[in-house]
Design goal:
mainly alpha, about 55% helix, binds adenosine-5'-triphosphate, binds magnesium ion
Length: about 325
Amino acid sequence: MKSRVLSGVQPSGNLHIGNYLGALANWVRIQHDYESIFCIVDLHAITVYQKPDELRAKIREVAALFIAAGIDPKHSRVVVQSDVPAHAELAWMLTCVTPMGWLERMTQFKAKAAAQESVGSGLFQYPVLMAADILLYQAAIVPVGEDQSQHLELTRDIAQRFNSLYGETFVMPETKLPAVGARVMGLDDPSAKMSKSAAGSGHAVALLDPPDRIRKTIMRATTDSNPAVDFEHAAGPGVANLLAIYQAFAGSTDDRMRAEFQGLRYGDLKKKVAEIVIAKLEPIQQRYRELTEEPGYLDRILRESAEAVTPIADSTVKLVKERMGLYTA
Ligand code: ATP
Ligand code: MG
């Protein structure tokens, strides 16, 4: 039996090139080597307020983008988290073995809580729900961006604690980061991670942005006071980010990057980055349009996927209930 891969994206805004390079592109690359499950994690999205109509639409958009980006629905499962109730069920059981102190250390919680007027307790519990998503399917590999490394460590801590309290139950999941593009930074502010939920038109390139918009966002990206790329001196974070975006999309080696970009003026660097991003997103946008025009297609994939994964999820919940002494009929 192949080991399992699990990962997810929140339907909390427009998917961007950070989500693509940090997560989706890696999923596409490895999906056939494993039994693969990719989730639209809507229960995570509601840890900050989402307008119901927008959330409903985003769930479908994200699912379609997974497939448009190259997730093979004949092989991999594309699942809406709230469609499989076991995610929330296991999350509660794991909440009860997770010390508050572990959650208080999470940098994502600190950053997101600071941006909210009123912080829902779901935002605090977010990493436990994520642990449940992963442990529910006994996933061995979790391909994510670098920002999720800390949550993956926590997931292993929770699994270990559960295993030591109640006996061997969970597979220990491994974090898988891409070699380049694991942390794409904001184009307007290269000190902040590119995020769906961040405001500002110059912040991110969305996967569905039209070419002229992509060009505009990248040409306006923050660089530094030097005129040109110089590999002899450490590049400022804005330039390093543009180079990383290019390298990740082109699949270039470090040597090729040096040969191609040494001495190039920032204006020309930006033009090259814009052109490769436009070229790589074009076929994804084309497939996205095609498959959203096919009536019933997406619903069928989502329904079949949920049906396929539910028995795996239910059997884990049943095992956890038995281990903990909860009632099982
Ligand atoms: P939000 O602002 O709502 O948290 P997000 O852009 O951080 O949105 P998530 O849905 O939280 O996106 O994360 C989905 C996946 O994309 C995760 O694997 C995450 O690590 C990855 N990811 C998110 N942002 C980046 C980024 N800037 N660079 C690389 N990977 C990223
Ligand atoms: Mg995030």
